[in-house]
Amino acid sequence: MRAKFVQKAIMALFLGFLYFQTPTDQDGVTNLKGILFFFCSELTYPTMYGIQTYMPGEFPLLVREYHNGDYPVLAYYAAKVLSYMPIFSVDGIILTSIAYWLIGLAPTLERFLRTVITGVLVETMVASLGVAVCSFSPSYAVAVTITGPLLTVYSMTGGLFTNVAMLPDWIKWVQYLSWFRFGYEAFIVNEWTYERYTNISCTMTSGKVAESCQHSGAEVIKELSFHPLNLYFNWLCMVLYTLAHYSIGYIALTYRVQQHR
Asked: In Å, what is the CA distance from 5 to each residue of 12, 17, 46?
């Protein structure tokens, strides 16, 4: 656990100094959009694969102790979920808290706290899906095989690589299952509705004038096809999906344990 927190602190420092006090110009707009999406990515992959490294290996022990009458599946499952919650909350707080001020994001306590909360909700939703996948996967190999393509699809429909309004109809619905979509929109809306982004310079770091210029935070949000009032809606979606993932995981794990005698 200590190593995980140290890793997050080092990554936050690297990210913070790489984008130290990002200027409010067109290059800064591009950088900030990438930074906020990177928050989602960094809170996703280590969390998902960390859970999958340990949880599948405990299944034989769970089956034996359940059928010996030592404890019900619910007790194991609840203990596992509760043990993960502080781990995957604290490291999200570490990442966003350190990187936020070094990068120079909106310097208000309210917006900082909303960024931290968004990060925690993203990581919590990731953890819930990781637990659910492990609960119905018979092995680590199967869990990883399922997760890899799933994370790729979710990240591709998250809003950075592809404009969500331009997604084909047959795949557009996937964005509404993705914490990349919910988290990224929440990060973007929280940052770009800050009042300092009302007159963004059209120059780039090189001094040249950008061919395509976004003059305000509202234009940045619109260009991504996000909605400026969706912050709390995204939070609610992540909470509901987290509960749904944990419920599905419990049902799947209970069924598997009862079938193995």
From this structure: 10, 18, 11
pLDDT in tens, 192-242: 999 889 888 888 877 788 778 899 999 999 999 999 999 999 999 999 999
Place of tokens 């409010």: 24
Indicate the SS3 state at residue 209: strand
- Placement of tokens 């190593």 in the chain: 3
Tell me the one-letter amino acid at 63: V
| Number of Cβ atoms within 10 Å of the Cβ of 112 | 17
**What are 134-182's pLDDT values in tens digits?**
998 888 889 999 999 999 999 999 999 999 999 999 999 999 999 999 9
Amino acid symbol at 126: V
**Integer angstrom CA distances of residue 189 from 85, 99, 115, 183, 194:** 26, 18, 10, 10, 9
Distance separating alpha carbons of residues 159 and 156, to the nearest angstrom: 7
Nearest-angstrom CA–CA distance, 115 and 39: 10
Give the other-Cβ count within 10 Å of 210's Cβ. Answer: 16
As beta bridge partners, residue 203 has 209
Global pTM value: 0.94
Buried residues in 32-54 as b, exposed as e (16+ CB within 10 A): bbebbbbbbbbbbebbbebbbee
**Among the listed residues 85, 97, 108, 80, the one whose alpha carbon sits nearest the alpha carbon of residue 193:** 108
Which of these, 43, 45, 15, 42, lies nearest to 31 by C-alpha position? 15
Q: Please report which residue ranges of the chain form alpha helices under DSSP H.
A: 2-18, 26-42, 45-54, 59-67, 73-103, 109-136, 140-156, 169-172, 179-192, 217-223, 231-259
**Residues 181 and 159: beta-carbon distance below 8 Å:** yes
Residue 210 DSSP one-character state: P
